[in-house]
Write a structure and sequence with these properties.
Layout (H helix, E strand, L loop, with lengths): L2 H11 L5 H15 E6 L2 E8 L2 H15 L7 E6 L2 E6 L2 H10 L26 H15 E3 L8 E5 L2 H13 L5 E5 L2 E6 L2 H11 L2 H51 L7 H12 L5 H7 L6 H18 L1
Antiparallel strand pairs: 1-2, 2-4, 3-4, 5-6, 6-8, 7-8
């Protein structure tokens, strides 16, 4: 099971004890996956999705928030590769539309759109906003495996949906962005801290722990790799510099003669030839009297300059 599937499974199993939170989560499911359709015998509410967890969660929320019994006309079926829930009981249908904020109880049902979420009590509480984001992710969200990269997104069919999600995330100080992908508006998070906050807000706490563990391992691995690369580069730099110094000193010995050098330069040249792999600090300790790194570096640079002049 992918990490995204594990997150959705955990959110599916998260059932709020508060009715208003159940209503808010159901509102999100209707907002992203619901439709109100007229038929010869009236209207029916339909939730259609490729994710069976959404339909099963809708059943649970209807039973918990609206006391829907098994005798009511709500059925689940599989059509065209998608799971579908149909609710035709007029009394229950009107109650659901009213409480989720899609219908004011006055206008004709033919004018109701589940793609327009009215301002109202459904999203007044912070806990209900969390529930709404939970339902939205179940319907339209996905998150990459944290071991491979950080990316979480919710795919919205309308710009107003994307703006609604952005507004809710901003309220929890989660910095998200929107990009257009074909005909969809995608709300996305690319920072590990933002994804961790989202998982925490929506109640996916087990997934959050797994995410943070992977995040720590990945960060440590990256830090180790950076340090190893840095050390490797430093070693290569030191080896190359020492190789050039030895080459210059051999030239001086052949063309100039080390005995003609000042005592300080002669000592440095002989020490480098005898210990080609030694660091500047180690070379300085071999001189008499001992010299610091900057002093050794200064002497070796003078030797290289002299070699260049001979060339």
């Amino acid at each position: 099971m992918s990490f995204s599937s594990r997150v959705k499974q955990e959110l599916f199993e998260h059932i709020s004890a508060k009715r208003h939170c159940c209503v808010a989560e159901l509102a999100a499911i209707l907002y992203f996956s619901g439709s109100l359709t007229s038929a010869d015998n009236g209207f029916f509410l339909q939730i259609k999705t490729e994710n069976g967890l959404v339909v099963r969660k809708s059943f649970t929320l209807l039973q918990k928030a609206f006391n829907m019994s098994t005798e009511m006309k709500a059925r689940r079926e599989r059509m065209g590769g998608a799971d579908t829930l149909r609710l035709a009981d007029r009394e229950l249908l009107e109650s659901v539309l009213t409480d989720t904020g899609f219908w004011d109880g006055q206008q004709d049902l033919s004018g109701v759109s589940l793609r327009v979420l009215a301002d109202g009590p459904v999203l007044e509480r912070a806990c209900c906003q969390r529930a709404f984001l939970r339902g939205a992710f179940l319907c339209a969200g996905s998150v990459s495996d944290p071991e491979k990269g950080y990316h979480l997104e919710l795919v919205c069919s309308r710009q107003t949906q994307a703006q609604q999600i952005l507004t809710l995330l901003s309220g929890f100080e989660i910095d998200a962005h929107v990009v257009t992908r074909k005909k969809y508006f995608v709300v996305y998070l690319k920072e590990g801290s933002g994804i961790a906050d989202f998982l925490n807000v929506t109640g996916a706490h087990v997934a959050l722990m797994d995410f943070e563990n992977s995040r720590v391992v990945r960060d440590v691995r990256n830090t180790v790799n950076r340090r190893v690369n840095c050390e490797t580069a430093n070693i290569a730099k030191t080896v190359n510099a020492a190789s050039r110094q030895v080459e210059d000193i051999l030239l001086l010995r052949e063309k100039y003669g080390l005995e003609r050098l000042p005592e300080s330069l002669r000592q440095a040249a002989e020490a480098r030839l005898e210990y080609p792999d030694a660091s500047l600090k180690e070379l300085g300790a071999l001189l008499d009297p001992p010299v610091g790194k900057s002093g050794v570096n200064h002497r070796l640079r003078k030797l290289c300059d002299l070699a260049d002049s001979i060339r």
